[in-house]
Write the structure tokens for this entry.
Amino acid sequence: MTYHSSSRFLYYTELFLSLPKTVVNHGVAAEVLQEMKDATAKFFQLPLEEKNKIRMASGGFEGYGQVDGVARGETMDWSDQLVLTLYPAQFRMLNSWPTEPEGYKEAIEAYSSEVKRVGEELLRSLSLIMGMEKHTLLELHKELLQTLRVNYIPPCSMPDKVLGLSPHSDTSTITILMQEDNVTGLQIRKEGEWVPVKPIPNALVVNVGDAIEIWSNGKYKSIEHRAVANEGKLRISYASFLFPHVDVEVGPFDHMVESSRMYKKVKYGDYLTTALKNKLKGKAHTEMAKTGR
């Protein structure tokens, strides 16, 4: 097969198909990353009444609020979040966007535009590596749906009693994550153990989501991961999710099926609705999508 995309993205795409990988040579200016971090830190330092001006509505998914996760015995989620739809632009709920601090909207715009560019290039590379034309995955996304979830995990005096985010896999096609440069909090489940993903300054972590696992018939699995709290350090993470179009059928591509189909075909919108109802529960979403369930 002839690869027509950027060699650096083909290289990293091949790597992150099996594990989350850190991408350094992504082309996003360090200033754009830092301005996003600085403005976000200022937002979460605002008085609660100011942040509550964009509080999530009951049953809603956009704005400021607390993580709606699940208990794990005595372990509970310990974080606030800001969730926004970025693209398509006409889907934005601007009444859920922060108006303070000054310049935050512009920082979000600049950062998310660059993440969209990186994500589209990665999807082209993924298409080639999965044995398809380079525009195949982008066409399945139609108008690319991109959302941002900022997780604010404050210091905790009993970090063993809480989690920043409960274990889960992402329902997206891919997720592009920016972490704090000097605070480790992301962990992935590998061979039954939780392994920390140490941050690298100005790098982006790329995760395979559930959609790729289903399309690949389980060859490339979405990674179960969680976020932990720290006793003495604040951690903020920035997860950008790239989703298929809600009307697109998600099921194993014919050329990825070697013997039997491991997953049912379903409209992505239906898959996402079911996953949101079940909240964060490990790999339960993809298990429910398997044939025979």
In short: The domain at 7-289 is CATH 2.60.120.330 (Jelly Rolls). The chain is about 30% helix and 25% strand. The helical segments are 7-16, 30-44, 48-51, 104-129, 136-141, 210-215, 268-278, 284-289.
